[in-house]
Write a structure and sequence with these properties.
The protein has 9 helices and 6 strands. Strands 1, 2, 3, 4, 5 and 6 form a 6-stranded mixed β-sheet that branches. It starts with a helix and ends in a 14-residue tail after the last helix.
């Protein structure tokens, strides 16, 4: 057992809390053991802004014709962090243009009936308490449930490494849907809004045990971890990590 096991044992787990350990154990320790509040980054703020606008639309709080204007008016205030440097383009302007294009071409969520927006889920895997939020839970005309997740990054294809992480996250959420409704979703949908692309896969029940094992294995690794050593990733360390500017003692050494 780790010297921090008394803290870890009572944790409420989420997909991000589990996956972020694999990104950088030291960053994970700062956030969840030391409870140090970090800072956000440009990409996260951009994604949050579009999530919030889509949430308001799905709840009927704003009309579809308002979305582009809301996005443009909110952009600077909602995204105070600068975009990382890029020798080819100005990323802030590129992302602004992508958001405008997305909302100007947005036609809603098709024929789906919206069942829940930002649905909070709480369930257990073994003795682990899991919590999450489903962007959209919808139903088709045949009564089948579907999960829709909004993402700013470009997964390239349904079988890319990034897409597989997203399907893993939604499969985790599907377990809670099964507990509540007695059925798994028929399909999982990825709304890659920045690229204006839509990815869909049929739900694969065989992946449920795979994801359960990943959750259990990751929690077990965290429970016995002693060093929480940093992982060297220059881009993550310089532009994404919540502790990149002042707290991380390893940044200059990586």
């Amino acid at each position: 057992m780790s010297g921090y096991s008394f803290i870890i044992e009572d944790m409420i787990w989420s997909f991000s809390r589990l996956s972020s350990f694999h990104q950088c154990p030291y960053s994970w320790k700062l956030a969840y053991i030391d409870c140090i509040k970090g800072e956000n980054n440009f990409f996260a703020e951009y994604g949050t802004l579009i999530h919030e606008i889509l949430e308001k639309y799905a709840k009927g709080e704003v009309e579809i014709y308002e979305l582009s204007s809301i996005f443009q008016e909110s952009f600077k205030k909602a995204i105070p962090h600068k975009a990382p440097p890029n020798k080819y383009v100005k990323l802030d302007q590129t992302y602004l243009a992508s958001g405008i294009a997305y909302f100007e071409g947005f036609e809603g969520f098709g024929d789906f009936e919206i069942i829940a927006v930002e649905k909070e889920i709480n369930f257990k895997i073994n003795n682990l308490n899991i919590k999450g939020f489903i962007d959209l839970l919808v139903k088709d005309k045949e009564g089948n449930l579907h999960i829709i997740d909004h993402k700013s990054s470009d997964p390239k294809s349904v079988k890319s490494a990034k897409a597989k992480e997203y399907w893993k996250q939604m499969t985790l959420y599907a377990m809670a849907i099964y507990d509540e409704y007695g059925i798994y979703p028929k399909q999982l949908h990825l709304n890659a809004f920045r690229k204006q692309q839509w990815f869909t896969i049929d739900f694969d029940e065989a992946q449920v045990d795979v994801v359960k094992n990943w959750v259990i294995d990751t929690a077990d690794k965290i429970m016995i971890e002693e060093k929480f050593a940093p992982l060297s990733d220059g881009y993550f360390c310089n532009f994404l990590c919540n502790f990149r500017n002042k707290i991380c003692e390893y940044k200059e050494k990586l």
